[in-house]
## 1
Amino acid sequence: MIWDSYPIEKDGRTHHVAWRVDLFEGAPDRTRPVRIDVILTLNAPDGDGLPDDAENAQLKELREALEYDIIEACDARYALRVTGGGRQVHTFYAPKAKGFFRKKRTPDLAVAAAKALAEEFPSHPARVEHAEDEEWQRFLDAFPSTDPMQWFADARMVGQLAQAGDDLSGPREVAHWILFPDESAREQGAEAASAEGFEVLERFPVEDAPEHGFALTVRRVEPSVELMVLHPAVLTLAKIAEGLGGVHHRWEVAPSAHAPAAAAGDDDEAASALAGLGAPKDAMSAGRSTNALGALGGMANAASRVDEERS
């Protein structure tokens, strides 16, 4: 299982969402049209309705048991977990029935499994709700972006930075390369990017991309290069580009002060990616190259992120 965890604001309070990344490409799985929600009430929620460390440890243990028992009982897929508002909701998708000769309704099987777990975990009795959700709307609506493919690309690149030892926190300049079909579109794009707080760095031709032969580089200081901060900035520029017939090609960030020293070939690799665009030498940053277009293979390329226990 590959999970992504992120905070959201709901009703003025912080909730933590854990979302099953590796189910995305196959969703909705219409062989499992029944949504089963297992709801746990928190015993000692904080001001945001989140568990403290001690209760969180209990919930982790319960979650592992719940995951095994519901999947085993219902042939289900564990897809989503939302913690906040004084409760934790585990969402599974299951077929309508299970069994060969004596088929049983999966919601009934889930209720039985939850009751059995209540004996093992009396501090957190579970309540089970179910509904028809053939399109997996609950799962898909919880996705953290309006552009899944770009999100996966950005997640992969941020994950590579983290794996290389980069400190993602703290303000950092992020540069973006945007390609346009003509000079007029590029100028409109530069004006729109400036209005969003981006500094225009350079304009240059792209000789081997006739459909998008007019490149623009911009940059802006972001509060951090964590995914939930960086991705909205990318979407802002992608929307500008697409509205003018262009594309957001890539973003790049210089290594943090605490990142390990780059290997001798790293700068050349970053420069060669730009050279492929026909960029002049003075447009080539020595920062870490993050070619988002190269990561658009989807879920299989997404970086596995730590499943935060508080989610």
## 2
Amino acid sequence: METLTASATNLIWRVLESYQINPEPFFQELNLELDHDNNLHKQIPVNKAFALWQIINQSVKDKCWPLRVAELWHPSYTSALGYAWQSSKNLKTAFELMERYIHIVGSHLMIKVEETESDLIVSVIFKATSQPLPQQLEAFLLVLVKMCRLNNGDTFHPKAIHFSHGIQGCKKRYKDFFHCDIHEQKKQNQIILSKEMAYQKSPGDNPELLSIQTKILDYFIKEAKPSELSTQVRNLIIERLPTGKVKDTDIASEFYMSTRTLQRKLKHENITFRELLTDTRLQLANEYLKSGSQTITEIAFLLGYSEVSAFSRAYRQWTGHSPNEVLG
């Protein structure tokens, strides 16, 4: 079954509200609720998300509503992937990250990045098992261009936009947004960038932050079986550590179960929540310390400690050494 990150429903909720439409009855009918934490681990069936997009299309009089989607989109809706994008060296690097990790956001999505002598070509592909509305494809390309502008400023303009379908009465408004030629009925849905634009250094370039976010993303796609609850819990701990919200009660609520049920299920996998939390913190601490790209204070924050002294005590208990002895 193809799935999509539940945070996509937050965006749909906001779009409906922006048109003075109450989203609640539609969400109740589909047995969906808002994901207030924009948690990548919470996934919903793609067919339910597609049903919500269909509701927008049928309920909203503005047939160019994909523009509203782009207006309301925020990097937090894609969690670590959004933040990795913002800290990328340039747009080429950002799109390559998207190509590698987009399946975390939606298992039905693919991004293909190709270079020619003069251009960078980014293709958006929905797998054959999914049948999106044309407006969903339009919204996706609009959001990608907004993401480019968040990185490189409002002066960013693609060279051309290709849609695989005809645009129903929105071509002028879309052209005003994209500031480039729009070509309809093409073989693929694509954004064409000049190489000059693709390789232009982004103001938000931050190798340290990018490294942190890609490590989080890599944990999502590691080879461990996704059916194992301990793997899912470990991944969620990694994502939530910088927020400090990593108590067993916090994590259990993310899986819609009681703390007691969480502990019982983990026991079946021969591990406890405390062991998972400690092991994850130790593993990340060693990686951060050996890389030498963060200070002790920054590492303590990334591991969910409010005080450096608390992290130092914990690390000494785990290893017999102080963090300063290991720092690269």
